[in-house]
Sequence to fold (473 residues):
Amino acid sequence: MNINKVIDFIVSTSKSPILIMLVNHFAVNKNRILRPRLFQAVSKHILADYSRDGMLGDLSLFEAKSLQLLHDNTLLRKLKGRVPGSSGGALKHINQSIKNIEQRIEKLNKLEGPDTLRFLTRTYLEDIAPDFDPVFLILFRSLATRLFNNFVNSIRAIETEIGTIHKLRNIIGKEPVFFIANHISNADHLPILFALNRAGLISPVVIGGSNLYRGISKKILPKINVCQIKRDDMIEKKIKWLGNPIYIETFKQHNQYMWLHNEPYLFYPEGGRSRSGKILKPKVGIIKNVFEFVKTEQRKVHFIPLSLSYTTVPEDLAIEDSRKGVNISHSDLIQQLVDLNQEYGRFKDTATYVNLGLPITVTPDDIPDLEDFSCDLMNKVRDNIRPTPTYEVAQMILGASESGDQSSANRFSVTDLKNANPDYDPEKLISAIEIFATKKFIRPDTDLETNRIYIISKPEMLRQYANRTECEF
Fold:
């Protein structure tokens, strides 16, 4: 199956007026934000700030224009350098990219003042703003259910307390809501979106890094409500995109427009996948923006702790490789789904838990300390994690191997684990051990196989699983 052609077909089909009408009438997810209106409103706000000598004065505008021209000229040289070794469709794509960038450079060089600001704002919004398509989401979800059934069937939406989902239904889409999740895999937003939709909850806007926009992911992510943020270098090893004053203000105003219109959001305050397995100390930038929104707009908002856990972590080996300096941000979304589905198809008992916590409300007259609130929020996420058997058994194995004498430091007995944890479900214990053995984190001791003795081959991998219910701060 040519997945590119399938996705193109879904994009084309999702434009059907009849399907759009039916989805907007009957489905949970509807077209709530009109992109042209968003572009117009954000541009108007930023231009108004410029005209009254606000944050975006002539100096910021000159800086942003210079950075954009330097970025485009650098990119242009790289693309032209790739032409000699390219052919066919790849060459056609490169030549079209060269043409587009040359046109952008020519136009930007001619612009001054407000026209420059308007042009840059629109350019950045084209990258940042999702192009959410609820018809596409339904069709893509149906495709994923068939092609990646092992993984999709593993997803479980659970409540921290009975009635949590009902409470969320009463506020989502009516007031600003922010799902705050731990970050394990680059594909985290997919089980979350599946779980929320199964629970009858609106799909949130997901803030995703530009490293996710690879291959076919570039077509899919904007359609399933992912908002792109560029955290990488704008000018290689010198200036990051977040150092561009117009870019960061455009991103901020885009989000504030969404919040004013009660669009739910999902983001990962850790800012990236944990390499140790532990939840990282939160980066407070976006939560700070939310607090500013609460104060400026006099609106209350709700934070929802969302705790994610996998029986088998999608990129466990790659995450360990990244600790040694290996670049692991290279797979597109479809490839990750293929890998996830194969991984979950190897094992009998797997589950991916999406645990929804109760809303934590922040009001204009009671805005908490930013650092304390952010850390408390991630501690709540940690506390609500549903431990999988692999998390729990990894802790048991490491505990047993570390508590014995030196001769048993790298091995353990299944019988000893059972005796030390008499209340633990033996089927879960055996299931986790089989998963670790299949993944070659442990291996049977050939001399003592009848006694169910295992040698720990990769203690660092067991440690990664054992750490999944802990914070690093």
Summary: The chain has a mean pLDDT of 92.
